[in-house]
Design brief:
The complex is a heterodimer of chains A (about 260) and B (about 325).
Chain A lengths: L7 E12 L2 E12 L3 E5 L6 H8 L7 E6 L2 E2 L5 H5 L2 E4 L11 H6 L14 H13 L15 H14 L4 E5 L7 H18 L2 E5 L3 H7 L2 E6 L2 E6 L1 H4 L2 H8 L3 E5 L5 E5 L2
Parallel strand pairs in A: 3-8, 3-9, 6-7, 7-8
Antiparallel strand pairs in A: 1-2, 1-4, 4-5, 9-10, 11-12
Helix pairs in contact in A: 4-5, 5-6
Chain B lengths: L4 H19 L7 H9 L6 H35 L11 H15 L2 H28 L8 H23 L2 H11 L8 H20 L1 H7 L3 H6 L4 H23 L5 H13 L3 H25 L8 H19 L1
Helix pairs in contact in B: 1-3, 1-13, 3-8, 3-11, 3-12, 3-13, 4-5, 4-6, 4-7, 5-6, 5-11, 6-7, 8-11, 12-13, 13-14
């Protein structure tokens, strides 16, 4: 593993996660560098989503700890963590009858007092978030009337309005066609380059991970197998080890690996 | 702000229905007489007595019961994320019925009359606590487990209640029936103040956790990630929901499905956000119960139909319609 001098924002320290009677992740240690896009990849049931929930303080560790900016995340309040770290679950579910703006506004919740009154600053932040995801024109439309790609962009606007430095995304491209997968990932990449957000996302598609992430974390059976730049991690040997299938890897002109599975 | 008109309209209708409730009865008052009675300097008039001792507490009780049941319905629907949830599905009515039957068997009629409200309240809240305890032990992640356990518990307690009532002297069954069919005839100043106190405690808390309840609708993980303490908010919402509904069941008996009808009607008009929804639901629920009670005691001549039966007559078809449409 590389030992970069980059600042670390989120660390797992011999983290053991699981559910009653079942351990999913065993004594895993790794650090997520600040200001980068990290993709968690691996076969189904390898513990990617469990790890993401653990990192987001949604699952208490059985042993070990998660450190956010060097401090144990479970020693901090839900609200305090929510101002710095945001998780978007795989399926964002919104009740019917909410408009795009109303949904995005909920991102301001951790910054408000208990009455939850909205200030002009909140309104401005929400408007900017909607502009960033290209939904300003649809601000007053109902969320349920939007397409799948647009819905995902509303949730991203909510996450943006939350102004957390760290964004954890669980399969942000599920149920999207290839064009919309690209659109959403371009947007996520932009949140990183333009707003400097640290992003950790679970992805299934290795080619998308290779194209859109700075670093790739390859997992199998709850353990970290390889960790580093896409070209270092997504090699035929590692893919064979983790997925048990043969793959060819070509390095494209722009330096991005292209993986073709041969079964 | 474009969402305020429904609330203004609903509040106006509620006011109108309340005036109708004060005027209507075996002895109809004219609006002019109502005005005179309310402004009269002579408190001895028979009509003022009728108003202040009989009709006013009854209409006020109906307003409070309708509002409390609707708030309770909103809270429960929010917590279970199931718009078909109703406080009655937690087995409150059966618990209150069983407690009353046991009371009637054990105590003499006069003592039983005095203890009626606290005992029914205890039966209802104990049942809800039992339902929560039983559904917490389940590993199931289904949000509906609470309602399924509640329905089962309700059926079981209802059977036990009937069993005890049938094996007791015949008047026990009859009195328990009268006490539990949603009759508002017995409401006086004392009951109104109990219900009023419940509303004064519950409504601000429900309003206060409104934003958190909205966020709970996005799922536990998302809510937690937005800074909501999911478990605390959910427990608080259930606790005040159960207290409010139990109070209504104890005072007014089973007025089923107000907590289902009013929030769903309101949701269609103002959307899913909790705060406008709570206000409008309370108005709709209050209107429904006042109207049902007024019709029940005037439209059928000498026969006085309990409000619970009239609400159920409207509520059941509405429930079926919701199930079929959704």
């Amino acid at each position: 593993m590389k030992t970069d001098a980059e600042p670390l924002c989120l660390e797992a320290d011999s983290l053991t996660l699981g559910y009653p009677g079942r351990t999913v992740i065993n004594a895993l240690s790794f650090a997520i560098p600040a200001g980068q896009v990290t993709a968690l990849v691996g076969p189904n049931a390898c513990g990617k989503s469990t790890l993401l929930r653990g990192l987001a303080r949604l699952l208490p560790p059985q042993r070990g700890a998660v450190l956010l900016e060097g401090q144990n995340i479970h020693a901090q309040s839900t609200r305090s963590v929510a101002r710095r770290l945001c998780l978007l679950p795989q399926h964002g579910e919104a009740p019917e009858g909410l408009t795009v703006r109303e949904l995005a506004e909920f991102g301001r919740h951790p910054h408000r007092n208990w009455l939850g009154a909205s200030t002009p600053k909140d309104d401005q932040i929400v408007a900017e978030a909607l502009a960033d995801v290209g939904l300003s024109a649809l601000a007053d439309s109902l969320v349920e009337e939007l397409s799948g790609g647009q819905k995902q962009r509303v949730w991203l606007a909510m996450a943006l309005a939350q102004q957390a430095e760290v964004l954890l995304l669980d399969e942000p491209t599920t149920f999207l066609d290839p064009a919309h997968q690209f659109e959403v990932l371009h947007l996520i990449r932009e949140l990183n380059t333009k707003h400097g957000r640290t992003i950790v996302m679970v992805l299934h598609d290795l080619n998308l991970a290779a194209r859109f992430a700075d670093r790739v974390v390859l997992m199998k059976d709850g353990a970290l197998v390889a960790h580093g730049r896409a070209a270092e991690v997504l090699t035929p040997t590692w893919i064979q080890t983790v997925y048990g299938i043969r793959a060819e890897v070509r390095i494209e002109d722009d330096g991005v690996p292209l993986i073709v599975f041969r079964g | 702000m474009s969402r305020h008109p429904p609330l203004l309209v609903a509040a106006t209708i509620l006011l109108g229905v309340c005036v109708l409730g004060l005027l209507a009865g075996s002895h109809w008052l004219s609006p002019h007489k109502l005005w005179l009675a309310l402004t009269s300097s002579n408190p001895q008039s028979a009509e003022l007595h009728l108003l202040s001792k009989v009709r006013l507490p009854r209409v006020a009780g109906a307003v409070l019961i309708g509002a409390l049941l609707s708030l309770s319905g909103c809270l429960l629907q929010g917590v279970t994320r199931n718009v078909l949830a109703d406080p009655g599905l937690l087995g409150l009515h059966s618990g209150a019925h069983l407690a009353l039957v046991i009371l009637l068997v054990l105590a003499n009629p006069v003592a039983a009359g005095h203890l009626r409200v606290p005992v029914a309240f205890a039966g209802a809240t104990a049942t809800a606590a039992l339902v929560f305890a039983a559904s917490r032990n389940r590993r199931s992640t289904s949000r509906d487990i609470l309602l399924i356990v509640g329905i089962a518990m309700g059926a079981a307690l209802h059977a036990v209640g009937l069993l005890v009532a049938f094996s007791a002297p015949s008047e026990v069954l009859a009195r328990a029936m009268v006490w539990t069919t949603g009759n508002l005839g017995g409401i006086g100043g004392r009951e109104v103040s109990i219900l009023g106190l419940a509303l004064v405690v519950i409504a601000p808390v429900a309003w206060g956790i409104g934003k958190q309840m909205d966020i709970l609708a996005f799922g536990d993980d998302c809510a937690s990630s937005l800074g909501v303490s999911v478990t605390q908010v959910r427990l608080l919402a259930m606790a005040i929901g159960v207290l409010g509904a139990s109070m209504c069941v104890a005072v007014g008996g089973a007025i089923a499905s107000v907590g289902l009808i009013a929030p769903n009607l309101a949701r269609r008009l103002v959307g899913p956000r909790s705060r406008p929804l709570l206000l409008l639901s309370a108005c709709c629920g209050a209107t429904l119960v006042v109207l049902a009670d007024t019709i029940g005691r005037t439209a059928f001549g000498m026969l006085e139909l309990p409000a619970g039966i009239l609400v159920a007559a409207v509520g059941t078809p509405y429930f079926l319609w919701l199930l079929v449409i959704r």
